[in-house]
Amino acid sequence: MKNAQLYWLRNDLRCHDNLALWNASQSGPVVAVCLISPATWQAHDDSPIKVDFWMRNLRALKHSLSQRNIPLRIATIAEWSEAPSALLTLARQLGVETIWFNDEYGIHEQQRDDAVDRAFSDAGLGCQRFTDQILFKPGSVLTQAGTMFKVYSQFRKVAYQRLHTWLPECVPAPPKQTVQNLESDSVPAAVEGFAVPGTDQQSLWPAGEQAAADRLAHFSENILLDYERSRDRPDQDGTSRLSPYLVSGVLSPRQCLHAAIAANRGEFDAGNAGATTWINELLWREFYKHILVCYPHVSRHRAFRENMEKLPWRNDPKALEAWKQGQTGIPIIDAAMRQLLATGWMHNRLRMLTAMFLSKNLLIDWREGERWFMRQLIDGDLAANNGGWQWSSSTGTDSAPYFRIFNPVTQSRKFDPDGLFIRQWVPELEHLSNKQIHQPPIDDLFSATSYPAAIVDLGDSRRRALDAFKGL
């Protein structure tokens, strides 16, 4: 192929507003390539539902690419260290001039991408990289002293200043190119080592750019303006549910930002409270990506605040398993954990509640929870998942103070007042009144249902956690 360009796709499974794909298409005929690495995905705790979501979206993307005469090649490699040789081999077969890709973050991803960059440079070939998963390149939003922020509100202030002077635009999908004499590869129906979810679970998360665009439109038109009030209610459809599409790159952060600005009449830091609150959530996502890059020890499963490595975590396998399976005897915690098991997703308010319950009420190492979430979540993302767990456990940057421990019963009464969410996921308790369902009476536990008694006393466990943190 003359003047061929190789687009290496990863977590950017879309044609629209894809910086690497668009720019590659402006330089010559494009061939897309995807590397499948089951062993690496397992080592990184990617969940079966997430891998299945990737494959389903890859099939949808293959169809979109074929409409533009862009062939898709797929190669399976044992681990990421094989990426440079696999991509170079394909590039030489196709007569490729340049490889194009969007940067990924996390220490292993950066090492892989840098190795590919060096390999192509050493071979006399070009390598073009883009900041696409986030709005600003990591390390570009800094304090006056030239260091990365450790406090989100300060990071957000500078991000707002940058957005006022430069609002990133969305690029179009690549144009239809001349037909290439190259067939696309088949997308595997399953990946070795990862079970295929049932159709009920898959149907909750339809694949493809159109599905993502439909959900974004629904959110922008029907939910966004009331988001500030509704986002904490797990009994309502008050969140975007766009995280799986953002994590897999079926949707870009720029598309989300522009949709919110449009709904907010051109504003992003003023105007409707729901819109500005959601934009702040997009910037939290951005903040954690920057933290991941600027403070590499976070990628190594270490506490951001190094003194927190000395916390006397408890080893309690029985309690950990009860938490994982939604059998703690605390209804809102169990409902949330069962939602995760059944759908591959959990409401954000409940992610904080379940994380605090594990790391503080049970005083079990936050890394146990971080790992379990990654192995279950369809939207598992190292930066966001690690950031959320370290925030809840008070070990991270700009985290909740150690003495801030959410009471799950109080939170349940406030955000699920009629117990609708609990009744959906803990049907053993559906016969209880709105008052009782948040904290079932002990006698009812054993006389009318098989629901377990609470595995921990909330008051006693709170005091135990405070003593542990104060001892540092």
From TrEMBL:
Pinpoint the site Electron transfer via tryptophanyl radical: 313, 366, 389
**What's the catalysed reaction?**
cyclobutadipyrimidine (in DNA) = 2 pyrimidine residues (in DNA)
Do you know which SUPFAM superfamilies this protein is assigned to?
Answer: Cryptochrome/photolyase FAD-binding domain, Cryptochrome/photolyase, N-terminal domain
InterPro entries with a match to the protein in the record: Crypto/Photolyase_FAD-like_sf, Crypto/Photolyase_N_sf, Cryptochr/Photolyase_FAD-bd, Cryptochrome/DNA_photolyase_1, DNA_photolyase_1_CS_C, DNA_photolyase_N, Rossmann-like_a/b/a_fold
Provide the residue positions that the database annotates as binding FAD: 227, 239-243, 278, 281-288, 379-381
- The yes or no answer to whether the keyword Ion transport is present is no
> Do the record's keywords include Flavoprotein?
yes
**Keywords on this record?**
Chromophore, FAD, Flavoprotein, Lyase
Domain of life assignment: Bacteria
Q: What does this protein do?
A: Involved in repair of UV radiation-induced DNA damage. Catalyzes the light-dependent monomerization (300-600 nm) of cyclobutyl pyrimidine dimers (in cis-syn configuration), which are formed between adjacent bases on the same DNA strand upon exposure to ultraviolet radiation.
**Family statement drawn from the similarity comment of this UniProt entry:** Belongs to the DNA photolyase family.
Q: What is this protein called?
A: Deoxyribodipyrimidine photo-lyase
**Which species does this protein come from?**
Halopseudomonas xinjiangensis
